[in-house]
Each structure stands twice: as structure tokens, then as C-alpha cells.
Write a structure and sequence with these properties.
The chain is of the alpha+beta class and about 210 residues long. It is built from five helices and eight strands, in the order E-H-E-H-E-H-E-E-E-H-E-E-H. The protein has a single domain, classed as Peptide methionine sulphoxide reductase MsrA (Peptide Methionine Sulfoxide Reductase, Chain A), CATH 3.30.1060.10.
Length: about 210
């Protein structure tokens, strides 16, 4: 079932070669998708449902150096989109955000994450159902890890006051979880297809200032 996490021993074999070996520059920002980026740039990986709309949210934010979309948190190396959608790789659709922390803080990146999707739905996001739509954060610095936990707890109190369920977002260091770039047609999808599918909107529930 797509709404049940696949066991490691039942996951697809994947492949040795990446599905996007030579990514083109970012169509909106003009930057490389994989670095190197300017000194001081930090990156973080955010899973918040369909990665098309999530990436668009971030490339519009001042201070973002680059974004890309890919697959994270699963078992099969270098999966294809079709394999991820089958529920047999264990990955979740993920956005990589590289940002200049002197312009855009980690808190602001996380605030956009919490306020633009429903982190309580488990293996779905709205009408999109499957383990590939689960909410997750993959951090790359101690500050990010600390803020991820603290903002989760603060947002949990906000939504509990409104009667919503507990947050299901998984938080883990990115160093422990490989990130695999998605196919080229997914990168900056909503720039290429401006009338394409969008499922993200501000929930109206604000993360408290920290």
C-alpha cells in the first residue's frame, strides 16, 4: 500500500547511476543546483507534500541562493519518480534550499515550512496520498537541528489550541540520509509550467516568534 511504509528488504533495488547526472542551472535564480555556492551559504532539505509547489515557495524568498527537488528518506538508491510514486522506495518528495543566512535566517526558512503545509497528516498532504508526501525535515547544521525541534514544539502548541492532531513531521540530520535529485522536468516545474498543479497555501496558523 502507498500509505504504508515499505520495509527495507522489500524496497526496489534502485540503480547506481543518478537519474539527473548533469543538472542544468536554476532557471529562475541562475545558480547551480548542487554547488559550490558563495561562502557562508547553508542548505536544508524540506519535505512538505508535492515538491513542485514547495520549491516555488522557496525560490521566491529573498536570500535563497538555489533550490532543487529530489527524493530523500528512503531505501532505493537513485530512484525514478515512478518508483517513488509506487511507494516501494520509501522516499519522500523533498526540496533542497540553499540560502544566505545573512539575508534569510534558518528560522524564516522553517517558518515557511510549518505555515505552508499541514504537518499532521502522516502519509498524505491534502488529496495527495502516499508515503512520498509525508512531512520531514533534514538539517545540515546544529542551529537548524535545534530550531527544527523548537519550532516544531512551538507550532504544535499553536495547532493544539485549534484542536488539530499532533505533528507527524520527521526530523533527521541530512548527513544520515542521501538526497537524490529528481528528473530534469521536475526541477523548477512551476516556472516551466506556470499553470501547473499547486497544492500549497498559507494555513493561517502562524509560528510564534523565537
Amino acid at each position: 500500500m502507498k500509505s504504508t511504509m515499505v520495509a527495507p528488504e522489500q524496497a526496489l533495488a534502485g540503480r547506481a547511476a543518478p537519474v539527473l547526472p548533469n543538472p542544468a542551472p536554476h532557471l529562475v535564480l541562475g545558480s547551480t543546483l548542487t554547488g559550490p555556492w558563495p561562502d557562508g551559504t547553508e542548505d536544508i532539505y524540506l519535505a512538505m507534500g508535492c515538491f513542485w509547489g514547495a520549491e516555488e515557495i522557496y525560490w521566491r524568498m529573498p536570500g535563497v541562493v538555489s533550490t532543487s527537488v529530489g527524493y530523500m528518506g528512503g531505501y532505493s538508491p537513485n530512484p525514478t519518480y515512478e518508483e517513488v510514486c509506487s511507494g516501494r522506495t520509501g522516499h519522500t518528495e523533498t526540496v533542497m534550499v540553499a540560502y544566505d543566512p545573512s539575508v534569510l535566517t534558518a528560522y524564516d526558512v522553517l517558518r515557511a515550512f510549518w505555515e505552508n503545509h499541514d504537518p499532521t497528516q502522516g502519509y498524505r498532504q491534502g488529496n495527495d496520498i502516499g508515503t512520498q508526501y509525508r512531512s520531514a525535515l533534514f538539517t545540515t547544521t546544529p542551529e537548524q537541528a535545534d530550531l527544527a525541534a523548537r519550532t516544531r514544539d512551538a507550532y504544535a502548541r499553536v495547532i493544539a489550541d485549534r484542536g488539530y492532531p499532533e505533528i507527524t513531521t520527521h526530523i533527521e540530520p541530512a548527513a544520515d540520509v542521501p538526497y537524490y535529485l529528481a528528473e530534469d522536468y521536475h526541477q523548477q516545474y512551476l516556472y516551466k509550467n506556470p499553470h501547473g498543479y499547486r497544492c500549497h497555501a498559507n494555513t493561517g496558523l502562524s509560528l510564534p516568534s523565537m
